[in-house]
Amino acid sequence: MDPMTDNNDKNVKQISHYGFIVPLNHKYPEKWKQTLRVRWREFFRMIPLALRYWYYYWQITRQGRMVLMDFLSPLNGQQIYGAPIGGLGAGTIGRGFKGEFCRYSLIPGIYQYDTVFTNQFIVTIRDTNGKTIYHQVLSPAPKGKYLSSWKWGFNGKNAKYTALYPRSWTEYNIIEVGIKLICRQISPIIPNNYKDSSLPCAAFIWEIINEDKVDLDVSITFTFQSGTGSSASSDEKWTEYFESKNKVMGVMIHQELKGMPCTYGIASKASVDVDISRMLVFNPFGDGRDLWESLERSGKLGIDRQEKSAPTKNHVACAVCAFVRVQSNKSREIEFSLVWDMPKIRFHNGLKEYLRYYTKYFYNDKQSVAPDLCYYTLMHYNAWESDIYNWQRPVLEDIDLPDWYKSALFNELYYVADGGTVWLRKDDNDQFSNTDPRNEYGRFAYLEGHEYRMYNTYDVHFYAAFALAQLWPNLQASVQYEIRDAIQFEDSSLRLILYEGIYCERKSKGFVPHDIGDPDEEAFKLINAYPIHDVARWKDLNSKYILSCYRDYCISGRKEFLQDVWSNIQEILSNSLKWDTDNDGLIENTGFPDQTYDTWIMEGPSAYCSSLWLAALRCAIEISKIIGDIKIGNKYSEVLEKGKVSFQEKLWNGRYYNFDSSKSDHRKCIMSDQLCGQLFLKACGFENEVFPENRVKSALKTIFENNVMKYKNGNQGAVNGFLPNGRVDTMTVQSEEMWTGVSYGLAALMIHEGMIEEGFRTAEGVYRTVWEKIGMAFETPEALYENDAYRSIGYMRPLAIWAIHQAWTLRKQKLTKSNDNINH
């Protein structure tokens, strides 16, 4: 082998120096809880809303459905999670940093939080005389009620976990026998690779390092159970052996999940000196004696002559064992794959059956393709590792970037897969234009949050989409075309709006939707599942669509995309202009929470909505030039010029932009997100032609000095609202929250504006609090309170950290170009 190639292979496989790194006996310093804090000034105002919510809750649950935002039974973080496994859009299985298989999301958009203790790796070590000298479940979990014959309780202080999504490494030091084990977990999350990134699979590669003076026989056994937890199931289950090309040998578990067929497959690869043995079926709720004693006797599983087990309605489990001799001071590798083949899905109402996107490459209507997926995983994980390493390397090797950021950037990306994500194939009934990316890349959707069960919630996706737009731009385009079509959709059915107690159309034509549906109702067909406000009156959604469209164009360079959305942009701008009641060029907020801060009331022109509006006008003007529609562009230019003057006159106070232009003292609140529109203009390559540079810098400096540094001493991001009197704004629950994704977005704007140190300080407070202090790794919440509480675990908006990456990349490009010009 070429020495250079061999050295690179070692670099690819070695444990990352960066990432989420903890020993397996790690305890977090603080444990917070989820709490919705309502102060007395809000309490009486919210009583009617609470009563209407109780009625809504009763209506939904009597239909056999789950409430899409359950404020009565909020979830608390479990402080256990590591990197989840699986590709994009075919479901994920969460894994704890101690090795637990937990938090299943295979049923579209639905989470099940059971830890399945049957799903384990077991190591058996024997001397060359055939004596077992070490036999242990590789989990710190104590012995429980089931599988009591197994030896549990691996000493967590002798193991270390490192996650740099989509990979992780777990290192076990078995001091007693001089063996070190390193398990590499790999999921095929690879930018711009749409085939492999769609696959429901993961590889577990075990490196066995023999540091002893004698040769040793080592086997690793992978055990796996049906279902997604310990809850009862009425469908039949059975197991089946399979063998693929290149001696890939495994076991399948056939079952149904909520009426949808799903087959698990676990497998390993035999070779001249790697021997594979399998156990077709065992009882996961028994004592596990047969499996355990077979391994202890021989280091292998007993031979079962059956090819299939008998069907049963009880849960079943199976096992695959790989056995190898490891010479003294040498190392060997053992490979395992885990796949789940769940090709056809439907949502709760069952109006349509969909094929997942991966079935474009792996699908057989007559039988499961789990064996093919296992084989493909074991044949391609090396290439995946190399691709992931080469993608991440420029960030990891950038000496100007802080170490914590290198972990945060990649680990926050977990949500693109673990956000209840669905990626569906186009079917014969879908009629898309020739330029529509859904023809080739299907339909893509992910939830607002694990607890806020709405697909592609657009006011939030606006922040999060920086990740998709840079890494999988065709999926971002798919989302944008879905929203484009939804703008034209109309659903005139009336429903009760919980905030105001009035009845409104579910979806009004000519307005950007809030979301494209609830998976526990009928996503893609019943648009706007969100029941709290009339979102046709929201003042941010239309602007956000225009800004996102132009941002995506700047990244992809696709002119046909702008042509396809141009008529919609004109329509939503026309509808938005109706909100400018005094013809000053600014749209007015109307005294209810009419934007993404959906408890925070703005009146008249507000800094948040007006900055978005002016930025959207500027992007629309640029689009009109590209399209060649100069006349309409001139019309928008007139509005923009008026609006720029009004924005300064009505909102600038000498240091920052007022929260809104109401008569109340609250208008002087320092809002951390007041220049969100400027973030998108900078991301699109504009300079300071809409918002004066000196005022932008002054506002950002004020935000940093107050919302960041006077809030938890600068160690917890930027609180949403801060008052000039030096206190956190407690006007509403959301003004006193720190929104993780908004703080990441604010940090990105600071970096765009040259405030590098301030930007990274702001973002660092988010990451260190969430991931290191309160134990919310891989379930980053939407919001933190100042102390002891958070809201909405597992949320989409923190993907906005990729706005920081874009800001940093553009900055480096400008510096390089400037240096090149000087040199020439």
Helix tally?
19
**Could you tell me the number of beta strands?**
30
End-to-end gap: 42 Å
Portion of residues in beta strands equals: 15-25%
Average residue-wise pLDDT:
95
Q: Helix/strand/pairing class, anyone?
A: alpha+beta
Shape: globular
Strand sequence of the main sheet, in spatial order?
A: 1-7-8-9-10-17-14-13-12
Could you estimate the helical fraction of the residues in percent? 25-40%
What value does the Rg take, in angstroms?
27 Å
Biggest pleated sheet:
9 strands, antiparallel
Low-confidence parts, pLDDT < 50 over ≥5 residues?
A: none
Describe this structure in words.
This protein has 824 residues and is of the alpha+beta class. Helix content is 33%, strand content 20%. The strands form nine sheets. It has a nine-stranded antiparallel beta sheet with strand order 1-7-8-9-10-17-14-13-12. Helix 11 (541-556) packs across helix 13 and helix 15 crosses helix 17 (740-752). The longest helix is centred in the middle third of the chain and has 27 residues, at 370-396. The model has no long low-confidence stretch (mean pLDDT 95).
